[in-house]
Specification:
EC number: 1.5.5.2
Keywords: FAD, Flavoprotein, Nucleotide-binding, Oxidoreductase, Proline metabolism
Pathway: Amino-acid degradation; L-proline degradation into L-glutamate; L-glutamate from L-proline: step 1/2
Largest sheet: 8 strands, parallel, barrel
Mean pLDDT: 90
Strand content: 5-15%
Helix content: 40-55%
Number of helices: 12
Protein name: proline dehydrogenase
Shape: globular
Cofactor: FAD
Structural class: alpha/beta
Bound molecules: dihydroflavine-adenine dinucleotide
Length: 305
């Protein structure tokens, strides 16, 4: 049943008509639990209050299905606005973004132009930028772009997904770039040809790549809400004397906030991924797919609004 729900929400997340409708009608159905607001001003309030609790942030301007140059340029402008705001308001926040929002499905040239604009502004404001990883069909392109950008900028990192068979060799392949990588389980629906179908295999591979990347001496963001993985990381760094400055934990805004604060109190860097913007629908559906138990919460929200 859980798998059916998961597939259903992932299917809904890709629906362009619902995405457009959601944009027009504003944050609904309890989405505000996971999305910081529709404007940068609302996001600033959320970031500031997280910073006050000892949590650091990576902020993300939401955008899905960008299929023309104008929209991609506008998405990049929103990222630049967010970076300048972080600098001006002295927030402890990085930025996350998606290659498709920057025009990946249109042309490489467009993505590179937008990324260089963003990374120049980020460098001037001392802000680090992480390129989120999307579905498998964009994985190689994203890694190629990351490699190119990493030769030009220090303030850029990307994400690798434990559910993909290829990730172990990507860790090895990227080793020489000394990348700051966020490691995650993976949020998209992928075929058995490219991804482990069983959760237990994903979890094992997650542990394996965390160990590989840390022992390669590279900065590792362990992005998960899973206590077993968090405990594994804590034990590993203790065993190998890896300092707290070489890794951090990351979680999504609205998920396990007490655990986030607890990890920060224990002295770990705890970064919260804070999405904002009018294009909240696809992101929200992927969060429901991860944890169908959240649906009960959403149904309550539907009747309250
Ligand atoms: P999993 O979903 O297996 O959950 C493990 C346990 O965590 C659960 O059993 C439960 O105990 C607890 N838990 C999970 N959700 C909960 C909730 N809502 N409330 C209470 N407890 C909960 N993916 C991707 O493909 N590309 C990307 O770029 C990113 N980026 C990213 C950034 C950050 C900061 C995070 C945290 C995650 C991502 N992801 C991602 C998403 C990631 O791939 C994955 O889908 C989710 O993190 C869910 O997987 P978990 O590791 O949390 O474990």
């Amino acid at each position: 049943m859980e798998q059916v729900m998961r597939d259903f929400f992932l299917f809904l997340s890709k629906n362009k008509t619902l995405t457009k409708l959601a944009k027009q009608y504003g944050l609904r159905f309890g989405a505000s639990r996971f999305v910081a607001g529709e404007t940068i001003g609302q996001a600033v309030e959320v970031i500031r209050s997280l910073n006050q609790k000892g949590l650091v942030v990576t902020v993300d301007y939401l955008g899905e299905f960008v299929d023309n140059e104008k929209e991609a340029n506008e998405m990049a402008n929103h990222c630049i606005e967010a970076i300048e705001t972080i600098g001006r308001e002295q927030l402890n926040s990085q930025l996350s973004l998606k290659m498709t929002s920057m025009g990946l499905d249109i042309s490489n040239e467009l993505v590179m132009r937008n990324m260089r604009r963003i990374l120049d502004t980020a460098k001037a404001n001392d802000v680090f930028v992480t390129i989120d990883m999307e579905d498998y069909s964009r994985c190689q392109k994203t890694i190629d772009i990351f490699k190119q950008l990493k030769t030009e900028y220090d303030n850029v990192g990307t994400v690798l997904q434990a559910y993909l068979y290829r990730t172990e060799s990507d860790i090895e392949d990227l080793k020489e770039y000394h990348p700051n990588l966020r490691l995650v389980k993976g949020a998209y629906k992928e075929s058995e040809e490219v991804a482990f179908p069983e959760k237990k295999d994903v979890d094992e591979n997650f542990k394996k790549i965390i160990k590989m990347h840390l022992l390669n001496g590279n900065y590792t963001a362990v992005a998960t809400h899973d206590d077993a993985i968090i405990e594994y990381t804590k034990q590993l760094v203790k065993e190998y004397n890896i300092p707290n400055t070489q890794f951090e934990f990351q979680m999504l805004y609205g998920i396990r906030p007490e655990r986030q604060e607890q990890l920060a109190r224990e002295g770990y860097t705890m970064r919260v991924y804070v999405p904002y913007g009018t294009d909240w629908y696809g992101y929200f559906m992927r969060r429901l797919a991860e944890r169908p138990a959240n649906v009960a919460f959403v149904l309550k929200g539907m009747f309250r609004k």
